[in-house]
Amino acid sequence: MKILIVDDDIELTKAVVSSVSSFGHDVQSTNDPREGLKLIREQDQDMVILDLSMPEFSGIDIVKDLAKDGKIKEKKIVVMTASAVHEDELKNLVDLGVHSVLRKPVDIDVMLDKIDEIGSS
After folding, report:
1. Domain count along the chain
2. What is the pLDDT of residues 55-99, one digit of tens each?
């Protein structure tokens, strides 16, 4: 699968890219959320793993931007969050078109299961 990871945490991104690519996935990443939005819009991915809490331009901003023109329906977006995001806000993101939510710290096995689930759907 072609997977894009968008997260401002450089060390976390490196670890996820290393782990996920070792299972044969084609993984691209960026630590810049605006670049992430550009990559989501301009490239084909089978899945996007997106951090919700990034400074200046958040994952929530990315989701809302993609939802405005319906582009979010073309993507399988899994959001990750470590913050205390209220369940209603997470439900709203799913209603906008987010595929699912993972809570940080994310167990790599849980992430790989999610990738397999999306890959087989």
Report:
1. 1
2. 889 999 999 999 999 999 999 999 998 876 778 888 899 999 999
pTM here is 0.93
Strand-pair partners of 2: 26
- Note the pLDDT tens digit of each residue in 21-46: 999 999 999 999 999 999 999 999 99
CA triple 74-80-82, angle to 5 deg: 160
CA distance 68 to 2: 24
Residue 46 lies in domain: 2-114
Residue 120 maps to a domain: no
d(Cα 75, Cα 44) in Å, to the nearest integer?
9
- CATH code of the domain covering residue 54: 3.40.50.2300
Q: Which residues contact 48 (CB under 8 A, 6 or more apart)?
A: 3, 4, 5, 6, 36, 40, 75, 76, 77, 78
